[in-house]
Design a protein that fits this description.
2 domains, 13% helix, alpha/beta, Spore Coat Polysaccharide Biosynthesis Protein SpsA, Chain A
Length: 386
């Protein structure tokens, strides 16, 4: 079956969905697309037109179209595989999937399901359901040799079978606690001396945890990241760095971000009230219903040393944030400044920096990337009313 994960309302997930389909969000060990690829061989995305050059969709005569916010499970797969051409699966009034050659919702026969459906309804779901998704994804991992755990320099609390360390990973004098959930350490990762990790936790290929770091439950670190200091219940999509001391909690960090030394985010208000978060869809701050909520940071954003980020902050794409004091809670894409004021981050400056940053990881800021971010620069201009 040819599977296409379609984005129904990407604006709901800005700024993270400005630069990728929703199915490329990392939740747990895998991205949503990678989760579906555990069940189907051909999986592609149907997203905003300006993303098509980077994320093309593959159309066949018979396609299973699935809402990209849906997380798969074995029972759901059984129901999806029973769908026939022209049929759609609904949970209450929510469309889950349908089978059709083209993306057309008219004249579909509706089938209802009583299954429990896991769905990403908001940006904050990325970190609130991350622990449970690490646990679910861990069950899909083919666990082989775990002989690294026998080293005297690695201290383990909890069940060793709840820990997977790739044979090519490096660990020295680390403390791993799997009492509350599994720990997944991928290929070529480097867990430096005196690191303490509590599961559920996952770290993907070629990422590094710096010396003395404290990593709490519910953290997912994507590939080619560098993580230091103190991190709690946060997701780093990939290729981002928080190499130094400082606290990040209940947050989602996109790709190609860099958090300067001693960057800290607040994740709890002093009056313990619910945190409000900027919502692009409603153009206002919306109550998250959460007492703990840090920040959402879009791709290619940076902070200077000692940056203080307010509770419930939404930081756009291509932001350069620096200076004393707490920053505002909503920082539009391609902004340059801090608590003393903002100006526009000029596109040529952004592009030059991005080329240098990606080159360090042997990646190319090519013409497709340049066109994408130039489009986003124009798309987000109306928000830069400083």
């Amino acid at each position: 079956m040819n599977v296409i994960l379609f984005d129904k309302n990407p604006k709901k997930f800005y700024p993270l969905s400005l630069t990728r389909p929703i199915s490329e969000f990392r939740i747990g060990i895998f991205t949503i697309k990678q989760k579906w690829s555990q069940y189907y061989n051909n999986v592609s995305c149907y997203c905003e037109q300006y993303l098509n050059n980077i994320y093309p969709k593959l159309i066949a005569k018979n396609n299973l179209w699935i809402d990209s916010t849906i997380i798969p499970n074995n029972n759901l797969i059984v129901e999806l595989n029973s769908l026939k051409n022209g049929e759609a699966l609904y949970k209450d009034d929510i469309l889950i999937a349908f089978v059709s050659e083209k993306f057309k919702l008219e004249k579909l026969y509706k089938r209802k399901t009583s299954l429990k459906i896991t769905r990403v309804n908001s940006l904050t779901d990325i970190f609130t359901i991350n622990s449970s998704e690490i646990c679910n994804d861990f069950k899909l991992i083919e666990k082989k040799d775990n002989s690294l755990l026998d080293r005297k320099s690695i201290k383990v609390f909890g069940d060793k079978t709840n820990i997977y360390i790739h044979p090519n990973a490096k660990l020295k004098n680390a403390t791993l606690n799997s009492e509350n959930g599994p720990i997944f350490i991928d290929e070529d990762c480097d867990i430096m001396e005196n690191v303490s990790i509590r599961g559920p936790f996952s770290i993907n290929k070629s990422s590094v945890v710096k010396m003395g770091a404290k990593i709490y439950e519910g953290c997912s670190i994507g590939p080619f990241c560098k993580i230091g200091g103190e991190v709690n219940n946060s997701v780093f999509f990939g290729y981002s760095s928080k190499s130094h001391d400082g606290f990040i909690g209940n947050s989602v960090i996109g790709e190609w971000c860099n958090l300067g030394a001693d960057t800290n985010n607040s994740n709890l208000k002093n009056n313990y009230s619910n945190v409000k978060l900027w919502n692009y869809e409603f153009q206002s701050f919306i109550d998250t219903g959460l007492q703990f909520c840090g920040m959402i940071m879009g791709d290619h954003s940076k902070t200077g040393i000692n940056t203080m980020i307010n509770t419930g902050s939404v930081i756009g794409v291509g932001v350069n944030l620096f200076g004393p004091g707490f920053t505002r809670n909503f920082i539009p894409s391609f902004s340059w400044g801090g608590s003393n004021g903002f100006t526009e981050h000029k596109f040529n400056m952004f592009k030059e920096t991005s080329i240098r940053v990606m080159k360090r990881r042997n990646k190319c800021f090519d013409e497709n990337q340049s066109n994408l971010y130039e489009t986003l620069f124009d798309m987000t201009k109306r928000y830069r009313n400083y």
